[in-house]
Amino acid sequence: MAAYYAHVYIELGADKMDELENHDGVSKGKYTIGLGQDSMAFCTEVEDVISMSLTVVKSLLENYKIDPKCIGRLEVGSETVIDKSKSIKTWLMQIFEECGNTDIEGVDSSNACYGGTAALFNCVNWVESNSWDGRYGLVVCTDSAVYAEGTARPTGGAAAIAMLIGPNAPVSFESKYRGSHMAHVYDFYKPDLASEYPVVDGKLSQTCYLMALDSCYNVFCKKYEKLEGKQFSIHDADYFVFHSPYNKLVQKSFARLYYNDFLRKCSTVEDGSREKLEPYSGLSSEKSYQSRELEKASQQVAKHLYDSKVQPTTLIPKQVGNMYTASLYAALASVMHNKNVTLAGQRIVMFSYGSGLTSTMFSFKINEGQHPFSLSNIAGILDVSKKLESRHVVAPEKFVAALKLMEHRYGAKDFTTSQDTSLLAPGTYYLTHVDSMYRRFYAVK
Ligand code: ACO
């Protein structure tokens, strides 16, 4: 696993004069407490989803000393449209062509924040199939999450995550328990092909997320129970990793799983908690999504378990913001960074959500792994603290100006970027120019 976060960010909090809450004129604490976010990364005009994915793939191959010829499948998950036909995967082929490897299957997968999970499943299924030729699969999740001015804008972010897929890995799939929920809704979508911004029904998207979570959890539990012959509850997993549009939704989601365990009469729900949730046992599911009292009561009873099972997964999403396809895997990277070798023998449950909607709950069992894929080496290569610290904080005005420029540049041709790489770390790819045929050119610092 390797991670790359856009190199500039803004503070969302309410303490300094130059933060986004002040800039946007919203009440103090709305973004930090209301959304639960600390800061938000964004791409400047020299970075985009292609440059970030080039950087993260190169970094993964170099850091784990993987010969590019050993990659047999490359899958990209992204919802950031740069070209309606040409896959981001094809830009990444430059790295492999240089080494004479053009025999690599896979293209891009897209459906909002779920594309990364679809790409991951494609790669895992390939490695488990008759078509597997013994080489590694490589999954890249890359997105720049930007919103039009308004309430959704502080829930943006930008990053790329790359994951190597092969046998005998420290993270091993428990594929038999996967539970999915797929449906047709208009909660968040991108019908305007001339704009990078989505059309968002924020409130609907929150309810759809929780409904999908309930449905996936129920299928997941049923499959587990059928195969294992015993009931599943949140106590059977050590960590829960959620797609994280903003942290407050993650807090509500874990509380919702606790409420599900209560409704399913799991013996692990303590008597005191049962009493607190009893008044809500007869609510219809529609009413339960709207009940502030239930939300409060379930968050309160789940709080101690949230602190141990979820909080360690929240570091990068709280710092970088919503990374769309990369969000779930940045949360996984957070727990690998925070818990490192203690993860051996533990179970991690993942919840992937993409608006529109597609969602899956699945799980991993973790083992120590063998060099270079040991848990300690993965955490060392992720180098999360140093990467977060080495980013550059900018004022909200710069963020707004960058988005204005990107609006202008979206779908444009015949321009050269500033090529200002002063803030980029060595080895970072950046966009240099787009020619009169819309062809994009990148260089490495
Ligand atoms: N101090 C503390 N809390 C505050 C303050 C304050 N000063 N002001 C507001 N809040 C709280 C509100 O009470 C609310 O809390 P709640 O969620 O517990 O009810 C929270 O902050 C958000 O405030 P709202 O006014 O309810 O919501 P807002 O209109 O700002 O919109 C939303 C939030 C819907 C998340 C918006 O940012 C959005 O549309 N984002 C994009 C869509 C999204 O991320 N959806 C999630 C799943 S889909 C996906 O992943 C893209």
Entry summary:
With 445 residues, the protein is an alpha+beta fold. 38% of the residues lie in helices and 20% in strands. The protein contains 15 helices and 18 strands.
CATH architecture of the largest domain: 3-Layer(aba) Sandwich
Shape designation: globular
Query: Are any ligands bound, and if so which?
Result: acetyl coenzyme *A
Classify the beta-strand content into a percent band.
15-25%
Low-confidence segments, given as residue ranges, are none
- Rounded to an integer, what's the Rg over CA atoms? 21 Å
Span between termini: 22 Å
Keywords summarizing the entry:
Peroxisomal Thiolase, Chain A, domain 1; 5-stranded mixed sheet; 15 helices; alpha+beta; 2 domains; 445 residues; binds acetyl coenzyme *A
Model description:
This protein has two domains: 227 residues, Peroxisomal Thiolase, Chain A, domain 1, CATH 3.40.47; 194 residues, Thiolase/Chalcone synthase (Peroxisomal Thiolase, Chain A, domain 1), CATH 3.40.47.10. The chain has 445 residues and is α+β, with helices and mostly antiparallel strands. Helix 3 packs parallel to helix 4, helix 6 packs across helix 7 and helix 7 packs across helix 10. The two termini are 22 Å apart. A hairpin with a 5-residue loop joins strand 17 and strand 18. The mean pLDDT is 96. The chain contains 15 helices and 18 strands. The site of acetyl coenzyme *A has 22 residues, from helix 2, helix 6 and helix 7.
What is the element layout, followed by pairings?
Blueprint: E1 2-5, E2 8-11, H1 20-24, H2 30-34, E3 39-42, H3 49-63, E4 71-77, H4 88-97, E5 108-109, H5 115-127, E6 136-145, E7 157-165, E8 171-173, E9 179-182, E10 188-189, E11 199-200, H6 202-228, E12 239-242, H7 247-263, H8 271-277, H9 285-290, H10 292-309, H11 315-320, H12 327-339, E13 347-354, E14 358-366, H13 375-382, H14 384-389, E15 392-393, H15 396-409, E16 415-416, E17 429-434, E18 440-444
Parallel strand pairs: 2-15, 4-5, 4-6, 12-13
Antiparallel strand pairs: 1-7, 2-3, 6-7, 8-14, 9-14, 10-11, 13-14, 16-17, 17-18
Helix pairs in contact: 3-4, 6-7, 7-10, 12-13
Acetyl coenzyme *A (ACO) is lined by residues 27-30, 33-35, 113, 151-152, 155, 188, 200, 202, 205-206, 209, 245, 248-249, 322, 355.
